[in-house]
Write a structure and sequence with these properties.
Strand order of the largest sheet: 5-4-3-6-7-8
Keywords: Metal-binding, NAD, Zinc
CATH class of the largest domain: Alpha Beta
Largest sheet: 6 strands, parallel
Domain Alcohol dehydrogenase-like N-terminal: 2-82
CATH architecture of the largest domain: 3-Layer(aba) Sandwich
Radius of gyration: 20 Å
Distance between the termini: 12 Å
InterPro entries: ADH-like_C, ADH-like_N, GroES-like_sf, MycoS_dep_FDH, NAD(P)-bd_dom_sf
Cofactor: Zn(2+)
CATH superfamily of the largest domain: NAD(P)-binding Rossmann-like Domain
Family: Belongs to the zinc-containing alcohol dehydrogenase family.
Length: 294
């Protein structure tokens, strides 16, 4: 909820119900001027620094911050949505769930009748499954090493599941797609091993989407002849290639119509003082999302 606006802010007023995003588009860079603002190369945050009461400057994560009851952001980081949506659900679109939905719909271009595989079915991968289902994919194969996450994926629309701890996921995906591989494979882990699985689990001229975030030390080695010979597209998905002003209101409307199960990602709601326990649960794979409620 907007509490106050600064000088020169238009289109927002105190009391507006908004979702925060961490990629406020500039409107002037070469991507924006070419009509691709979701790729904006000069996204920005608030110019005024947040401070503690004693004047100590803060560095909010991703320009938004977290685990605080107030934050200071640029106007472009606020997107108004229907206030009928629960805050616990609306807030999910601010990061991980939008990343997964967008990886399928925006980056992967999943459409009616496609076969889709999603490797890694935590919050982001589960959202990719949901996005593929929303787009009308005919076959959605969820891959993970945790049967609990695979069951969650079924709830979001997966038609098949593969536990890659006991089954070769590439062979399983090919077998489930008539021996050819999936049209779109979404890698939501961010590891070289799982990326290679995604690369070889797609059909010829298919698409691989990397939405899992690697660590700086990770490297990838693939035979260049395979990269050439398999064709298709190898894409990275930044924040689900979303445009918040376009995507957030649409997805909230679909949720309110009962057509998008965003509520399924809210495993629990917790007070702020239980954040550390929530991180432990997340690392153990016990939750999709723990949502802090003030």
């Amino acid at each position: 909820m907007v509490e106050a606006v600064g000088e020169g802010v238009t289109g927002l007023a105190p009391g507006d119900y908004v979702i925060l995003n961490w990629r406020a588009v500039c409107g002037q860079c070469r991507a924006c001027l070419r009509g691709r603002p979701w790729y904006c190369f000069d996204t920005h945050n608030a110019t005024q620094k947040m401070t503690l009461g004693d004047g100590t400057e803060l560095s909010p994560a991703l320009g938004i911050g977290a685990f605080a009851d107030k934050t200071l952001v640029a106007a472009g980081q606020c997107t108004k949505v229907d206030p009928a949506a629960s805050p616990a659900v609306a807030g999910l679109l601010g990061c991980g769930v939008m990343a997964g939905l967008g990886a399928a719909i925006n980056t992967g271009g999943v459409t009616r009748g496609d076969s889709v595989a999603v490797i890694g079915c935590g919050g982001v991968g589960g959202a990719a499954v949901l996005g593929a289902s929303l787009a009308g994919a005919a076959k959605i194969i969820a891959v993970d090493i945790d049967d609990r996450k695979l069951e969650w994926a079924r709830g979001f629309g997966a038609t098949h599941t593969v536990n890659s701890r006991t089954t070769d996921p590439v062979e399983a995906i090919r077998e489930l797609t008539g021996g050819v591989g999936a049209d779109v494979v979404i890698e939501a882990v961010g590891r070289p091993e799982t990326y290679q699985q995604a690369f070889y689990a797609r059909d010829l001229a298919g698409t691989v989407v990397l939405v899992g975030v690697p660590t700086p030390d990770m490297t990838l080695e693939l035979p260049l002849l395979d990269v050439f010979g398999r064709g298709g597209a190898l894409k990275s998905s930044w924040y689900g290639d979303c445009l918040p002003s376009r995507d957030f209101p649409m997805l909230i409307d679909l949720y309110l119509q009962g057509r998008l199960d965003l509520g399924g990602f809210v495993t629990e709601t917790i007070p702020l003082d239980q954040v550390e326990q929530a991180f432990t649960k997340m690392h153990h794979g016990e939750v999709l999302r723990s949502v802090v409620v003030f």
